[in-house]
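Lecture 7 notes: from sequence to structure.

We start with a single chain of 180 residues. Read the sequence below before looking at the structure.
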Amino acid sequence: MNKNIRKINIIGTSGSGKSTFGRQLAAKLDIPYVEMDALYWKPNWQEPSDEEFFANLEKALQQDSWILDGNYNRTAPIKFAYVQSVIWIDYSFVRTLYQAVKRAIVRSISQQEIWANTGNKESFRKTFFSKDSIILWTLKTFKNNRVRYQALLNDPNYSHIHFVRLKSPTQAKAFLESLD
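Now the structure, written as tokens:
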């Protein structure tokens, strides 16, 4: 990847490792890391209006450089107007599901606040016994996300964007090491 690329969106199914990779990439390139979930979620798991969310996103993308972690497909017109590169974390279904379950368990046990000043925490009930389960979300969206992201790579409307598809943790590690 060209080191002059300074506006990057990390995409992938929930649990794929977007945040971990995004933080590592931001540290490696010494540029700000922006987590879309942190822009989205309000205290007590309240959701903003699209107008509020889009305004928060627009403001975050006014910086000279950033690593943007997140999908939110309805934000494509906003983020793709700025982005120079999209990195798709496309690990196998089994790997992604394993990571989603592991993360949910760790978060449920630790009870750490997920996004600053929200009070939002994972719980076993929400994770395993709720229609809002992140694990259920991963199961429901994995296949459709693959189809959607593959189409994105081939969409002539986005030919100005440099796409990178990482299919394994080994490829992700090699990609990061190539930036030295």
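The first helix runs from residue 18 to 29. Keep this in mind for problem set 3.
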